[in-house]
Design brief:
single chain, 86 residues, mainly alpha
């Protein structure tokens, strides 16, 4: 029993960063969806975001949320789009 407590504590501590990363990835994906839907210019019936927004979306898709999130948040705020809950 004494061994189980430290192992359980270690498992919880190791799982927390993965959960936080998953939360960040989900938030980044929500931002990317909003950016694709509301930012950009209409070209051939499709909304095309600018290069910086596309770069941020790419960063999110590749797991680099630390780069993608700030760019997307700024772009959405500048476009008067309400950010989703984090």
């Amino acid at each position: 029993m004494r061994r189980a407590v430290p192992l359980l504590a270690a498992a919880v501590l190791l799982a927390t960063p993965a959960s936080a990363q998953g939360d960040e990835a989900a938030y980044c994906a929500k931002l990317a969806e909003l950016a694709q839907r509301y930012l950009g210019k209409q070209i051939l019936g499709q909304n095309r975001p600018d290069v910086e927004t596309l770069y941020a979306i790419d960063r999110c898709q590749k797991g680099d949320t630390a780069t993608g999130i700030p760019i997307l948040e700024r772009k959405l705020r500048n476009g008067d789009i309400t950010l989703p809950a984090r």
